[in-house]
């Protein structure tokens, strides 16, 4: 499975989002990770569909929309119409999971399920046949710049093995503290899609940062250290 780098706009310059998105596209990013927070599911507020719609006009990057909100079902249509390509929401949310996955697909988007660091891997098992991605949070969701939690990585391997047993090929994404120093551990555990915030947006050379993270991930993927 291809290695994908999805820079998180949570680490971008919010006063210049359009140009920041273009900068990531030119730097070789595969996706753009768009963090949506409602101030209820997580203790932070970020952005909504109008900003996604505005960004869609500036870049052809694949929009990786991560809904860290209590009632994702209510907002799927708006984000899909704004230009989302894949919409990921949390198993811990208050919406019906099956109905929300079906609604995402009804608008032609891919669907992903996310789990917080304290949520067991098995919570996503029954949905694996219905989704295109699982996101394992490697920090507590809500704020950027946190330290990578390596003890969450065994869950990636559990999910990878479950997918393999079911003959499924879906993306396994990690989000939180990903950099050239931490990506190898996540890749070795089975992740192929990496959300990197500060390590890319904060780099003086984001193109080089993406190349380094990608190379390390490719070299480490499913490697038994």
Describe, in plain words, how this protein is organized in 3D.
- Helices cover 33% and strands 19% of the residues.
- The chain has 225 residues and is of the alpha/beta class.
- The chain has one domain (4-220): Aldolase class I (TIM Barrel, Alpha-Beta Barrel), CATH 3.20.20.70.
- Helix 6 (183-189) links the parallel strand 7 (171-175) and strand 8.
- The longest helix has 15 residues, at 206-220.
- The radius of gyration is 16 Å and the shape is globular.
- It starts with a strand and ends in a 5-residue tail after the last helix.
In a nutshell, what does this entry contain?
The protein has about 220 residues and is α/β, with parallel strands linked by helices. The protein has eight helices and eight strands, in the order E-H-E-H-E-H-E-H-E-E-H-E-H-E-H-H.
